[in-house]
């Protein structure tokens, strides 16, 4: 902002001084005040336009910053919710996390259970191992899951790391 004002103010002062010098050289002292006033008006109009353009660009940048902050806030809240579900009961894991993890696995691995269930399971066991696959397997829903504890955030973290590698 100061750079723009400097680019306008310095030439503006030079124009005002030049108008006054020209009026003195012509020996018409009655033109000094009107010439300086016109030069000052031109400088003020140019400064006003520069500030208005700068403020308009700043408002657009502020709007995108607000949208990014809102998006980050939503992502953070969703992540906290996922972690809470991982730390709660197995029923929450089965109801909320397992379908999401199974869907992400199917997309990442390119395997669909509907095409070949054996290949889907074999790929899952290879990727996650025997300990983690039961927590991703869409068929491993516990009927009495509400009383069992969930696997926790460490298991969720490891599953997400392995999905990320695919």
Profile the largest sheet: none
**Over the alpha carbons, how many angstroms does the gyration radius reach?**
34 Å
Mean pLDDT value: 81
Number of domains: 2
- Proportion of residues in helical segments: over 70%
- DSSP helix count? 5
Extended strand count: 0
SS strand fraction: under 5%
End-to-end separation in angstroms reads 47 Å
Question: Can you tag this structure with a few keywords?
Answer:
166 residues, mainly alpha, 0% strand, rod-shaped
How would you describe this structure to a colleague?
The longest helix has 56 residues, at 32-87. This protein has two domains: 2-67; 88-165, no CATH class. The model has no long low-confidence stretch (mean pLDDT 81). Helix 1 runs antiparallel to helix 2, helix 3 (90-109) crosses helix 4 (117-136) and helix 4 (117-136) packs antiparallel against helix 5. Helices cover 80% and strands 0% of the residues. The protein has helices at residues 2-25, 32-87, 90-109, 117-136, 153-165.
